[in-house]
Design goal:
The structure is a homotetramer of 206-residue chains. With 206 residues, chain A is an all-alpha fold. Chain A has one domain. Helix content of chain A is 73%, strand content 0%. In chain A, helix 6 (119-145) runs antiparallel to helix 7 (155-177). Chain A binds chain B through residues 2-6, 8-12, 15, 18-19, 21-23, 25-27, 30, 33, 89, 92-93, 96, 99-100, 103-104, 106-107, 110-111, 114-115, 118-121, 124, and chain B through 17-18, 21-22, 24-26, 28-33, 35, 37, 40, 43, 46, 49-50, 53, 64, 67, 71, 74-76, 78-79, 82-83, 156-157, 160-161, 163-164, 198-199, 201, 205-206.
Chain lengths: 206, 206, 206, 206
């Protein structure tokens, strides 16, 4: 039996949304703090500056990938919260767990940018994406089970929300597994999956 | 007798909530800036990378603990503000004091991560948690005394809000006192208390 | 034919606005992190401190210019969103692309401050401004084509929004092209164009 | 004659408030990034850790002072915006100028913490506070002149808002002028003025 305090806690979905927007905004912008610019001492001409910027390619790629990751999960969380009528204490804490994983994205990005050829770094990056998806899935399952979902949300919408997470996670896992062939191939596949969800919604989505 | 300016100041609870969400969001995400990744020069194999990440355990533990701390007090402040009908200048400044303590959490976390075996570092971390609780308690007491609380808030709810803070602070103080036995034991107990409030609301709560 | 999930995604313009405000707020404040203060070891008198601060002029100029850039595009996005009735998934992703370019402003600013006499650095800074304008223009074109614009928005308003972006971008491009004469002249012209839009709306605006 | 675009720009006060809350939240939390903790190599006992923390007193004082500064001006801006019915393009840019000064507070704080005995550093810190007050005053004057103020705002309220800024700025200027006697005295007086506005509203306020 839940206590009184736990009944009155975590009802305010607006504040959960505001905290989420704030954390996503900071995480998306903090990624840039880890991007380095060439050292002036190494650059003596326009051509050398261009070459030095080109040599920083791994950090640009991981940066772009992480912004896509955050954008996709921000949109996913927004879609979920749009269909929730009211919060509870436990629902709030599931989403705080989700936000915890969001704050770790800049860190796993930095790890991947520095150790881009290491399977361990790629595995941790994938684990971060997996936890993001798992928390969102848990949040929706919990909301359905405890009747937090808005009355006008059809079963079709509910299934579509779950299926979207499961298919995306299957594709990410397949992409991450390719790191046993080549880390670069693995990153390329993950970025392609992300671009598919961000730009060209024609494949594997329902 | 309050002056006119003090009467018109600090009425807008929405902006106080927005500022709070912003400060919590930044503080939660800034914690990650203090997490270091292994230096590439020290890592020559997948196994070494895993080992190097494992050696950074103290910073992971303090990071997780601080995210829990911030999550607990964010939820606590939200619950309090949900029951307030309108703000006043003094109520706003009590909460600005609370937010001041929130901005110090990343700093006391960094201190604890670096000096994890020092009682002084643990004491300062506990003091930070204590001030957070004390400001929230003061804010509620003030709101009750000056009739800022919403009309539909029962005495039971009000008592439950106070009791929650007092019991939690008693448990934190007991946990912190254990640092005279062992700092690690102390941290373990504080994390257990926090997990109890975040995950398993079955014990010592009302 | 869009799938069900894509129909229910990205509807919430309020959260898009909140994420945008957060990202602009962080980007505007992060710029300051790249501003350095003189080293104490080099300063032995009040006069030397003033001189050392004066020597940091390039960073002050690029900082001021970037705050103006962010302010102009924040106001521009706000004006656009004020005239949109509801969002769609694709509209959201166009604006996430816009926000991606916003997060890059602190980085291209840092590059320009360090390599202020290099055409490559100025070219990248201009490219950043160009992408900001192009995404806003694309967003408005898309909203008009897919009937997301509010019913009370006249054609005149719509033309005025487009013309504003095109004229501003033409002026920025002309300013950037002057870097083949002199990078300093180029920066001066860009700042003048920005000040025109921020302070003295008397010229080239409709 | 204002152009059409300038008429439709900057109407949304909610987004101005959200951007302001974001910038204040980041600035308040960023201050902490400049606080250093003692180096582990210099600390070998509990007592040495306490002593090392005590030696960092100047940074704690400037940090506390800057949080007070930001809190006071956040409350001041909130009070002003609460009495504004709708925004205009020019009103928005006056407040963007105000926010520009807000983003500089962490920088002038850092300068003062490092050069705490220099009059130039104190003068720049005071200049920052002066610009904050001047922009708020200008914003209110502009709003009154162009009829943006809400209909239910009495002349008394309007005078009280202006007088508050003028008296506070006179006290800050007097405090800053004391730096010709002693920088420490000057800082002490400024902090006392701030505490007066934050905590003990009994003196010099109307």
């Amino acid at each position: 039996m839940p206590t009184l305090y736990n009944l009155i806690q975590g009802r305010n979905l607006d504040r959960l949304a505001a905290l989420s927007d704030g954390i996503f905004a900071v995480a998306m912008t903090l990624l840039v703090l880890d991007l380095h610019i060439p050292l002036p001492a190494h650059v003596h001409s326009e051509r050398e500056l261009l070459a030095a910027l080109g040599a920083l390619a791994p950090q640009w790629i991981t940066y772009g990938m992480s912004f896509l990751t955050l954008g996709i999960f921000w949109a996913g969380q927004q879609t979920q919260l749009n269909h929730i009528a009211e919060g509870t204490r436990d629902f709030t804490w599931i989403h705080l767990g989700f936000l915890f994983a969001v704050t770790l994205v800049p860190l796993s990005t930095r790890l991947l940018a520095v150790f881009i050829t290491y399977r361990v770094a790629l595995g941790i990056y994938w684990l971060n994406i997996f936890v993001l998806g798992a928390m969102l899935y848990w949040g929706w399952m919990y909301a359905v089970r405890t009747n937090l979902v808005k009355a006008d949300t059809t079963d079709e919408v509910s299934h579509s929300i779950c299926r979207r997470i499961l298919i995306a996670q299957a594709l990410y896992a397949a992409g991450a597994a390719l790191c046993f062939v080549s880390p670069w191939l693995s990153i390329a596949v993950i970025v392609l999956v992300q671009l598919n969800y961000a730009i060209a919604p024609k494949f594997g989505q329902s």
